[in-house]
Design goal:
Largest sheet: 5 strands, mixed, barrel
Shape: elongated
Radius of gyration: 20 Å
Number of helices: 9
Oligomer: single chain
């Protein structure tokens, strides 16, 4: 059965000599895998629509009772040329797609990924959206940092630090007992705002503050620690961030 779907390419891997195995996230929040024949040749008409992070239309030959289908045709739905012009944007695009590839049960995942890629395309500040996105994925997996009180004793005053090991904020007494390092009040406020922001509030968040790679590293550490998932493309983001800083 032939079917046209809209989706975003999450991964591309070699499959036989000139073919590729593609995984997409569709606009119905389904992940579909299919084989793209001949896509690794220079004459392929579909190659441009099958790059990781590309939002495209796909005509698929769907095989009943199979989870691996066949591509008939692909064409780009949404061009985001500015992402291709920046190494950091490219790295974050790959990072986003791998996050969605490895995370399951993300409600409105397709819309969330589209919004994140649109922000990456249009904005110069790239880390703020990235931080919010990772926290939203943490929330979808039930592993978001606890930032409304002390995660250890529950008190809401004298919050003094953020603890990866404990999973959220600690008050001064619990911080001292657990030998954690103190954070400044501003650091704690910034992290709490991040953890309460949704995808619609990113521009409002930017009016208060902008986030950087260190903030990204912190929220990603929560994702990695409590999901048990490692995102290989994070190393590329870190490398680019280090290059930019130097």
């Amino acid at each position: 059965m032939e079917q046209e779907v809209s989706g975003i390419v999450l991964s591309v891997s070699e499959y036989r000599e000139k073919d590729a195995l593609i995984t997409i996230l569709t606009d119905r929040d389904m992940k579909i895998r299919f084989v793209a024949r001949g896509v690794q040749t220079i004459t392929s008409k579909n190659a441009g629509a099958l790059l990781v992070g590309t939002q495209s239309f796909f005509v698929l030959q769907m095989k009943e009772h199979r989870d691996l289908h066949m591509l008939k045709q692909a064409r780009v739905q949404q061009y985001r040329r500015h992402i291709g012009e920046s190494l950091l944007k490219q790295a974050l695009s790959l990072f986003y797609c791998e996050l969605f590839l490895k995370c399951e049960n993300v409600e409105h995942g397709y819309e969330l990924l589209v919004r994140a890629l649109d922000d990456l395309e249009k904005k110069e500040d790239n880390y703020t959206c990235a931080c919010v996105l990772i926290n939203l994925l943490c929330m979808s997996q039930g592993i978001a940092p606890w930032v409304d009180s002390c995660v250890s004793c529950g008190r809401i005053d004298q919050i003094a630090t953020l603890s990866l090991k404990q999973g959220g904020f600690l008050c001064k007494q619990c911080m001292d007992h657990l030998h954690e390092r103190a954070w400044s009040k501003k650091q704690l406020q910034r992290f709490r705002y991040l953890c309460h922001a949704n995808i619609d509030q990113i521009d409002l968040l930017r009016k208060y503050t902008q986030y950087d790679f260190q903030d990204l590293a912190w929220i990603y550490s929560f994702f990695q620690e409590y999901s048990g998932i490692s995102i290989n493309s994070y190393a590329f983001v870190k490398q680019v961030a280090t290059m930019n800083a130097s």
